[in-house]
Amino acid sequence: MPRAKKPVAKPLLRSGRQTKRWQALDAAHHIHPFTQSNLLAAEGARVITRAKGIYLWDSNGVRIVDGMSGLWCVQIGYGNRELAQAGYDALKQLPYYNHFFKTTNPWTIELAARLTALLPDGHTRLLFADSGSEANDTALKLIRYYWNLKGRPEKKIHLSRALSYHGVTMATASLSGLTPMHPQWDLPFPGFEKVPAPYWYGAKGAGYGDIDPEEFGALVTREMEKKIVDIGPDRIASFSAEPVQGAGGLIVPPANYWPEVMRICRRYDILFHADEVITGFGRTGEWFGSFTYNLQPDIITMAKGLSSGYQPISAISLGSRMGDAIAAAGEELVHGYTYSGHPVACAVALKNVEILKRDGIVTRVKRKIGPYFQRRVREVFADHPLVGEVRGAGMLAAMELVENKAERQSFPKNRNAGTICRDHCFENGLVMRAIRDTMVLAPALIITEVEIEHMLRKAKLCIDLTAKDLGVL
Ligand code: PXG
Q1: Whether residues 332 and 392 fall in one domain
Q2: CA angle centred on 450, ends 449 and 456, rounded to 5°
Q3: Which domain, by its residues, includes 447?
Q4: Same domain, 265 and 322
Q5: Residue minimizing CA distance to atom 3 of ligand 1
Q6: Beta-carbon contacts of residue 67 (< 8 Å; ≥ 6 apart)
Q7: Do both 366 and 311 map to the same domain?
Q8: What is the structure's pLDDT at 440?
Q9: pLDDT digits (tens, 9 = 90+) for 197-242
């Protein structure tokens, strides 16, 4: 009998070749978002081929802990079969139809109804779109429309905050306060004005001196009010804000900030738009950050966790003030996307929301895993010499790396502390987001205590290595 051929250890070799091929094709043909293509082409992009729970695998078979749940969005973790099944069923039954010509479909209807039951009182009507940027762009249009309907067309200025991220369309990039998002595109458009972010930890470096968080909260809201008075409240349409600023550096405002902002919006008759693209769907321990911080939004935008990122879908929810006015106008709403309320995306989002509720995932963030995560991240990092501040809420946490902890002094930009740390994470199988020198973790809401320990051990290793590189340890 001929001897069976010994299995050769080819898969690795093959996958190595395949990876190189994919990297070359990617470098040649695919333009990446927020990426310097020439640098990436030299390095080669990491090819992610599968995922399960909180883990990703690359094309070389390396397992990576995804500390960011994708881009702050995979609430339910990867590889959920029920979501896959829901999408597959919808794909078979109705892969596409729209809502333009007096039509609808069961998944869109059920999802709209389900969401309004979870949203704050008065939010009984919503529209769908396909991304956070589209949702915010739509919100700005609806805000303009509302004031036109009210006979106040002069109310057209959109206020938002420094360091905010609201999207990348022309209008939502204008609304965003992260200034690097503007020059390539000659933005912001006129009519977009900024007020300060409630970024207490950065206050000293920004020249506010040694100020305590509450004083700083009062100070930035006074600056906001002054800006409104200077512009003239009659010209201001809206104030847009993330309950916790995400991409701007995970900024959790001082306790007195939100009540004062709510008072200011009411006093000057400014519509309040809560951008819940990151904070929605349990991220802060409630269904929406608006509940966590007791906000009363006139309009809410949501995306990411709505479908746990499994499908591109977003929504814009109208409070009674805007919803009633728009309904009463009885006009055609001259707006909508080909894919708004896509049946497959709605089916997946519906199943996602059902599971978040059925399995008590949001409640678990509030009562158990959120408090555990917040406690452990502080225990591990609060006394670390490189970590100036640990901050966070629910399943959001950040460690801000500083040169001098006692003096709250940041590193000069050219020391690249955040980038060095992110590179260590990359080498050590952890995705942790570097925002300037702030390292962020936003894991899937289904993460276990054991997995949190595993993730934090890796994060500690990477921050220790960074400290060594920077001469702090
Ligand atoms: N609002 C907020 C608060 C966001 O965080 C958007 C709107 C825009 O959503 P779309 O779906 O159009 O991307 C976002 C998106 C990062 C990062 O690295 C964050 C986002 C997107 C991409 C990267 O922190 N947030």
Answers
A1: no
A2: 85
A3: 46-79+361-469
A4: yes
A5: 277
A6: 425, 430, 431, 432, 433, 441, 442, 443, 455, 458, 459
A7: no
A8: 98
A9: 999 999 999 999 999 999 999 999 999 999 999 999 999 999 999 9
Q: Which residue has the tokens 């004005």?
A: 193
Q: Is 250 a member of any domain? A: yes
Q: How far apart are CA 161 and CA 220, in angstroms?
A: 10
Length of the chain: 473
Q: What is the CATH number of the domain that holds 443?
A: 3.90.1150.10
Is the pTM above the cut of 0.70? yes
Distance 167 CA to ligand 1 centre (A): 6
CATH number at residue 188: 3.40.640.10
Find out whether the beta carbon of 366 lies less than 6 Å from any atom of ligand 1. no
The predicted-structure confidence for 236-286, as pLDDT tens digits, reads as follows 999 999 999 999 999 999 999 999 999 999 999 999 999 999 999 999 999
Give me the number of domains the chain comprises: 2
What whole-number distance in Å separates Cα of residue 130 and Cα of residue 303? 8
Q: Is residue 96 part of a domain?
A: yes
Q: Is the peptide bond preceding residue 233 cis, with omega within 30 degrees of 0?
A: no
- Domain boundary (358, 378, 404) is at 358
CB of 242 within 6 A of ligand 1: the answer is: yes
Q: Is 181 in the pocket of ligand 1 (CB under 6 A)?
A: no
